[in-house]
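Reviewer 2 asked us to include a model.

Predict the structure of this chain.
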Amino acid sequence: MIRLLLWMFGGALLGGIVHLATVLLLPTLATQDAYSRLAQVAPVNKVTPLPQPTPDKAAIPFLDPAFAMAVCRYDLSDGPIKFSVPVSPAYTSVSFYTRAQVAYYAINDRAAGRRVIELDLMTSEQRGDLPDDEEVTAADRLIVESPTLTGLILIKALAPEAGLLPAARSVLAAARCQVQPND
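Predicted model (structure tokens):
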């Protein structure tokens, strides 16, 4: 009886290890991740609106049709990114992801407290190279540090009614994601 229980425990332990290893390795082995899918439709360092999802086709799986969405595939190798998006009347959110789809920062219109969400996106090294300017305070300039050189910025604007979807799309059309010029 004890021998059977040991075999069952060993089998369950081995199954758990195999399951955990598979779950952890699968995202790195996947070839059709969000970044790769969006590379076909979204140029680097430019905001691109995503088409409305249908039951048959969506740029990224599990998109909510009540939101107008846009994406910016960023590359910080040429320098920091200046990002801005006006807020929509209902709700606007911005989420930042690494190339491996790890979310590392998010902000919405209520947290921003302004009519425009503006921030500078850069690596830790690029932030260290910034000059210490005493006139610019932390409240004046929101700086987000990216853990990787490449990634995604997902922008969502809520359209609580189907008739408000064009207004939400126009908000996203005014979004900017571009490399900061060297001053």
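The beta strands are 47-49, 67-75, 81-86, 92-98, 103-108, 116-122, 143-145, 150-158, 176-179. The chain has two domains: 1-30, 34-179. We have added this to the supplementary material.
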